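User: hey, got a sec? need DOCK4 protein folded
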Amino acid sequence: NKEFVCRGHDYERLEAFQQRMLNEFPHAIAMQHANQPDETIFQAEAQYLQIYAVTPIPENQEVLQRDGIPDNIKSFYKVNHIWRFRYDRPFHKGTKDKENEFKSLWVERTTLILVQSLPGISRWFEVEKREVVEMSPLENAIEVLENKNQQLRTLISQCQTRQMQNINPLTMCLNGVIDAAVNGGVARYQEAFFIKEYILNHPEDGEKITRLRELMLEQAQILEFGLAVHEKVVPQDMRPLHKKLVDQFFVMKSSLGI
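Assistant: Yep! Here you go:
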């Protein structure tokens, strides 16, 4: 009944890691979900293995957010000297809205705290403590936008400083964000959280609603800048796609009321 976080081999897929563990423990029964096991599993005579991916939570947030620090240094701190890891389980609370699932999409976030930071003398350490919190649909929306804005900034910066060998990652990210927004991504957030009914029923969420609106406007600014950078480096054969992105972006801006 112990829990560990283990660092896999470089470029090792989760499936390969699972198979490696099952080879080491040939009598173990593999559990196919990441939910907390019930008491019957803990009390059982049989051996069970539950394996799932976790995300590192870096300690040096200021290093990651500071401008001017090279990306390779940031990359190091994202996965080294890590004490805390997390995994999220999305679920719907109450009645699921078929038209707009963002309204009822909650996230159960589990944080695992280790006895010692990874990587260390060993590739795995025991979990000392676990904390579980629930994130509301609005908090979830805020985090999704914050992460996407940060990803866009990083890709645009890499493109500007010629750290990117080809611009496909930036193209795909711009396309993904703009296409989702035009096909209802950002509009769904507006329908879910900016309507009078939600604001009246959740007076405590005033600051969070303001924050979500700020992040939407911030994303529009980042996209505008990203498209300008993209235009300078886009190859001739991808010009039609770039033009489509620019056209869609104007539709997105008008939907935001900019």
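Quick note: The chain has two domains: 4-135, 137-256. Let me know if you need anything else on DOCK4 protein.
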